Amino acid sequence: MAIVLDAFASYVGDLLKQVAQDELTLLLGVSSEIASLHERLNSLKDYLADAERRRITDQSVQGWVRKLKDVMYDVTDILDLCHLKAMQRGGVGSSAPPVNISCLDSLLFCLRNPLFAHDIGSHIKALNARLDAICKSAAAFSFLKLEAYEDMAAPRRPSAADRKTDPVLERSAVVGEKIEEDTRTLVKMLTNGKNKKQNAVVVVAVVGTGGIGKTTLAKKVFNDEAIKEAFDKKIWLSVTQDVNEVELLRTAIRSVSVGGASDGRESNKSLLVPTLVDAIRDKRFFLVLDDVWSDRAWSGLLKVPFSHGAAGSRVLVTTRHDAVARGMQAMNPFHHVDKLCPPDAWSLLKKQVVSSEMEEVEIDETLKDIGMEIIDKCGGLPLAVKVMGGLLCKKERRRADWEKILHDSIWSVPQMPDELNYTIYLSYQDLHPCLKQCFLHYSLLPKNVDFFIDTVTSMWISEGFLHGETDDLEQLGEECYKELIYRNLIEPNAEYAGEWVSTMHDVVRSFAQHLARDEALVISSRDEIGRGALKSHKFLRLSIETDDLQPDDEFGWKIIQGQKSLRTLILVGELKINPGDSLITLSSLRTLHIENANCTSTLVESLHQLKHLRYISLKCGDITRLPENIGKMRFLQYLGLVCENLDRLPNSIVKLGQLRYLDLSGTSITSIPRGFCGLTSLRTLYGFPTQVDGDWCSLQELGPLSQLWVLGLSNLENVPAISFAAKARLGEKAHLSYLMLECSSRLGEDGFVEDENGVPAEEQRQIEEVFNALTPPLCIESIEISGHFGEQLPRWMMSRVAGAYERLSMVIMDDLACCNQLPDGLCRLPSLYYFQLTHAPAIKRVGPEFLTILPSSSQLRQAHAFPRLKRMNLIGMVEWEEWEWDQQLNSVHAMPALEELVIENCKLRRLPPGLSSQATALTSLYLRNIQQLNSVESFASLVKLEVYDNPNLESITSLNRLQKLVINGCPKMRILEGVPELLRLELKDLDMEELPRYLLQSVSPRHLVLDCSLEMLIAISTGESGPEWSKLSRVQHVKAYADQGDNERRWHVAKDELNLLFGVSLKIATLHDKLRILKDYLADADRRRITDQSVQGWVTKLKHTIRIKALNARLDAICKSAATFSFLKLESYEDMVAPRRSSVADRRMDTRALVRRLTDGKHKKQDAVMVVAMAIKEASDKKIWLSVTQDVNEVDLLRTAIKSAGGASDGRESNKSLLVLALVDAIRDKRFFLVLDDVWSERSWDNLLKAPFSHGAAGSRLLITTRHDEVTQRMEAMQPFHHVDKLYPQDAWLLLKKQVASSDDMEVEIDDTLKDIGMEIIEKCGGLPLAVKVMGGLLSRREKRRSDWDQVLQDFMWSVPPALLDDAVYLNYQDLHPCLKQCFLHCSLLPKNVVFYNVTVLACG
């Protein structure tokens, strides 16, 4: 990440000012030199903003900036060493003030440390000289002074805190009817079952530039209800440029079904592909391939396994290039995503800028003309418009401000690199220098890992991006984080509540990484270019994400150790680390984040030698201890540990006086060292263990920690007395916003107290007193209580006391073993928006006290119980039977803002009337396993209701706004009425003997999804003749499923399909009759339409009519008009037409011959055409495929053989002797069929595989493929060998057409218009299938025009990509002796049309 120049200079200036005042600099005699450094930096400060701006596009300025930054980096290192000496002399922690030193002590220090004093002085003098030269060279660039630059640049606006409180939730990323129309078009195209090529997987392409909204459109299609009903499985695969094929296969397998799950560590593609085939076989799937940059991932990897899906499966691909869509044989025409039209772009921009309709009107009247010009410069790109909106919402709504944006010179900079988006740059330039650094740093975070806000801000603090007079750096970091969200530079992840986790759009990430390219590198293990850069360039910041690193991969710690200037290292995934590897060479490191890597003890032990380190995050299961002298890391501010085997903290940790963040929750640590109270800089502390040792308790160590914002306490059951808890002084912590209080759980898996004798009364009383003493301060915002086993909850959560917590917005309670009453103070909390209670087996009744407040007479009309509560979850209250809340309970209303309610696992008899009458904002209700619930009724606002496994539920009534209803496992459900707006009904009951009668009597949803038994499905499938059909007559769309064993939804039928199969109405039957009349003529009509426009018009009318059911009148007219064309009847037409692809049968003879030889005559019906796999499968117990290749890995070959044979083996075993024994055990007495593909030498068979496979049963067979007769002879293959002939021209033409055409119609068109050129291209391919396929791949990317094909023909050698066509020939060539290579090359010079005898050729040599 590139440090932002002016921000960095400000940071260094602050450090210089601080150190210059330090007494130690006087002792070292360097105070004057440090002052000179400060003065020179100040003299440059006026020019730095302009230099930072110009360095992006001016290489000479970039060089000057880099020299200046290098000096400043060296300055920070020197200042750190000075500061470190001061801390060592001043006291234990960095926060301790320096101790007064007498003249004698000063003299003694200099006498005892002459080398240090001289070294520091020399370094600072050298830095002054370098900085002096840089200052002089600045004149050559004519940098603008700060005041002139500020006149050009837009002024800073108020911070995010001054704006509307929740702008992100009020904005929409989708505007206009166009995207809705595109969604409908694509859904119709994908669900249309009339595509002619039904047995092939149809590919539909969405094409458009980056950031235009392809992924957004694909997501809308993917989540459309019609798509959900039309397909058995939906799969989303993100392909991207650096696609990981193994991970792609794993994701596909996991997405298909549980039955298709494979070992998540499996990395052998030849095993993953068959697993995917088994998982997808006979399933009708919808696959989205998002962000595809090349057709190779489809053509070379996914196409074959997905071809085993059921007919009617569809693939939707999003890509930036038409050529990719053509290469994937996508259906024409491709769907091009248009840019936003100006009105829609203006609407989107306004949504980013304003917060009310009134403001929209105001902007329309005053700023629309300028806004439309800005829109024009955005080029209709939604992402650009959104980023511009984020920028403009920071400005005043004045014409002058908007005109500055419009006329900024960056719009016209011609040297702007392709990776930079003008609009993003404008937004970037408008950021405060410190915020620029935070933005660029965010682009370093690995894309596939979730980083929480506190982790991100801690990195920023550790890097020095957040500094100044304030001590509340965490709060400043949170404001910066939210500012980036408001400006649309990062986006909150919808999977997490609030804004805890965010993501960065690819286009924005690309922009930021390009800006940071001179200092930072972000790479993956498969990034060869990045690997090369890592070896050839020096970086300051490095982010690595590895995946499936192979044992022989050179990508390891050794490469990183060469980056000696590194200041930040982020490593996610495995890395090759040798026992002796350490961190010592990375002496400048400030930030270290290691996740899932295989850390060695040497690596961890070397941590303390990194003097500058501020941030450590270790998420490694291998770590069992930290270095004992960790206390020497005086600058350490952040320590996050997710190390389950770590059970002890070093005693020296108490010396880390600058530590601000400590997370122990992911460890097994149960004790902390005494003196922990000295860590007074701590702001965040998770997983603090409660420990008692005599008269000492760890809680008393918390007393002096007054700066805490976040605190999590565990093992509170260990506190023996209330006095110890009081010493924690929680109530005095004026900054505390989050508190977690945790005891070890007393509940078993059944939700009841595990000890049959219950929890002793004395223990209950003791824990109640402890929690009462742990009273949080009034500033608290979030509280979690887990494992509390007292009968009474803390007093500070009860009655009027709770109302004082005006900021408390989230309360979560879990594992309340003995508590028999919900806290009656929660209803008084004015800010509470989220409440969750899970596992409270002692609560049997929730009384009116839970909701009752007694306001004063002056507050009577305004008071509400739970006034802002939006979400409430009540789960696992297994004995709860009664909830008292009557409509006339009192004059105070309750829960007016509640939107979502979840109730699970209880015995509640009824939902209280007060809930339905007073919770008027309730839209979503989830009820699961409520044993005694009989009915759900009278919720006027409810839109979505889901009921699962409620055994006594009988009726659902009077839900006037309900749109979606899910009923699953409710066998007594009989009444459903009063749901006039119901759109979707889902029923699941595998024991259902008949469809519920309410389908006939009271409801008519648009969509009905049934999950039932196979018997019920058959009953439905009998159509009008069956008793169940009439119940479906009022439903427009029906989808019914039945399971078969572990295969969920194995069988299905849709109502539309039944209409066609069973002719449920007279109109459908009439339509069928008329279509049958036309059937005899369709073959001839399809042939003639290609050259006869009038026939083409007739066929078009017919196609349009067939798409619209029951339009018999139009179809009748078309039938009559057919007579004018004198179409030939089907039998006559078949006499005229030659059979298609007859030569394919000739090639099947080779296959059948091989099967006969391999199965040794076992099958009697050898003349019948059969699938090869079936014949081989019947003849063999095991089928094994091994790809041998030239550079065969013998260990991998043995592992694959063992897995394929069904043997058990540790996937990490690399000892060949052990692997051979395992293969013998796996293959013993089994009749196997083994294929060794691409064998170059007999050694793999003779020296490795022959011996273990000799233990197979009699009748086993081996099939090898090789380029050399000598290999087959040495392997003693059966004579005669089977030589594969070249393709006949006609077969070659068929193969070429299959590569180019995406439908039968297109094949016919190519036959008629391009066959002559195609046959000439075929001739040049020489009958080689690989050459034909490569040519087909090339031609599929061209338009189907003679000029394009003719160009390929004329430029054959130049247009064929050598990497594709020459792979096979190149392998042959590389295998030749050097002398033979020369002879081979010489032969290519001989004229093609002249015969040269061998003696002539030999004489030439």
Descriptive overview:
InterPro entries: Apaf_helical (IPR042197), Leu-rich_rpt_typical-subtyp (IPR003591), LRR_dom_sf (IPR032675), LRR_R13L4/SHOC2-like (IPR055414), NB-ARC (IPR002182), P-loop_NTPase (IPR027417), RX-like_CC (IPR038005), Rx_N (IPR041118). There is one protein chain. With 1405 residues, the protein is an alpha/beta fold. It folds into 9 domains: 148 residues, no CATH class; 185 residues, no CATH class; 155 residues, 3-Layer(aba) Sandwich (Rossmann fold), CATH 3.40.50.300; 173 residues, Alpha-Beta Horseshoe (Leucine-rich repeat, LRR (right-handed beta-alpha superhelix)), CATH 3.80.10.10; 153 residues, Leucine-rich repeat, LRR (right-handed beta-alpha superhelix) (Alpha-Beta Horseshoe), CATH 3.80.10; 71 residues, no CATH class; 95 residues, Barnase, Chain D, CATH 3.30.370; 86 residues, no CATH class; and more. 40% of the residues lie in helices and 14% in strands. The protein has 56 helices and 41 strands. α33 links the parallel β35 and β36. α12 runs parallel beside α13. The longest helix has 32 residues. The N terminus is likely disordered.
Structural class: alpha/beta
Apparent shape: globular
Runs in which pLDDT lies below 50 for 5 or more consecutive residues are: 1-5, 20-29, 92-112, 146-172, 412-420, 856-861, 1056-1070, 1107-1111, 1130-1150, 1161-1175, 1356-1368
Number of strands: 41
Gyration radius, rounded: 37 Å
Strand percentage lies at: 5-15%
Name the helicity range. Answer: 40-55%
Instruction: Report on the biggest sheet.
Output: 22 strands, mixed
What is the helix tally?
56
